[in-house]
Specification:
Shape: globular
Number of strands: 14
Protein name: Glucose-specific phosphotransferase system IIA component
Structural class: mainly beta
Keywords: Kinase, Phosphotransferase system, Sugar transport, Transferase, Transport
Number of domains: 1
Number of helices: 2
InterPro entries: Dup_hybrid_motif, PTS_EIIA_1_perm, PTS_EIIA_component
Pfam families: PTS_EIIA_1
CATH topology: Glucose Permease (Domain IIA)
Strand content: 35-45%
Main location: cytoplasm
Length: 161
C-alpha cells in the first residue's frame, strides 16, 4: 500500500475551490480533483514543485509530476498536474521561464518555473493555478486547507491517500 502523499501549493496566493475555476474541464473535475490557487501579485510568479517526483510532462504553462508510490518503480506513482493560468496555452510559452527539463527528478519546493500572473491577468486571462490529482477518484483526496486560505509556495494543499 502506498503511503499518503502531501501536495503543496506551487505558488503563493489564496486557495480557491476547483468548482470556482473559470474553465469547465477544471471546475467539473474532469481531469481530476484538487484545489486552485489565485497567485499573489508580488510573489506568485515563483512556481515550485508541489511534491517530489519526476517531471513527466513539461510545457511553459503546465507540468505533470509523477510522485513515487513508495516503491522503487515510478510507474506506480501518482500524477499531479499544475496548470499556470487559464487559456495560457495561447501564449505559446511567452512570459514563462522553465528552470527544469522533462524527465528531471525534482524535490518538493524546488523552483521549476518563473512567470508573471499580473501579465497573464493584464492580457485578459485568469491567472488561477489549478493543482490536480490525476487518475484519482475524489475519495482519495483530503483537502488540508479551506478555500480562502492564504498560502505560501510549498504550504500543504491536499493529501492523496
Amino acid at each position: 500500500m502506498a503511503e499518503a502523499l502531501n501536495v503543496g501549493s506551487p505558488v503563493a496566493g489564496r486557495v480557491v475551490a476547483m468548482r470556482d475555476v473559470p474553465d469547465p474541464v477544471f471546475a467539473e473535475s474532469i481531469v481530476g480533483p484538487g484545489l486552485a490557487v489565485e497567485p499573489d501579485a508580488e510573489t506568485g510568479g515563483r512556481v515550485v514543485a508541489p511534491c517530489a517526483g519526476v517531471v513527466v510532462k513539461l510545457h511553459p504553462h503546465a507540468f505533470v509530476l509523477l510522485a513515487p508510490s513508495g516503491g522503487a518503480e515510478p510507474a506506480g506513482g501518482r500524477g499531479v498536474l499544475v496548470h499556470l493560468g487559464i487559456d495560457t496555452v495561447q501564449l505559446k510559452g511567452e512570459g514563462f521561464t522553465l528552470l527544469v527539463e522533462e524527465g528531471e527528478t525534482v524535490v518538493a519546493g524546488q523552483e521549476l518555473v518563473v512567470w508573471s500572473p499580473l501579465t497573464v491577468a493584464d492580457g485578459g486571462r485568469s491567472p488561477l493555478v489549478p493543482v490536480v490529482a490525476l487518475d484519482l477518484g475524489t475519495d482519495g483526496l483530503d483537502e488540508l486547507v479551506r478555500p480562502g486560505t492564504v498560502v505560501r509556495a510549498g504550504d500543504p494543499l491536499f493529501r492523496l491517500a
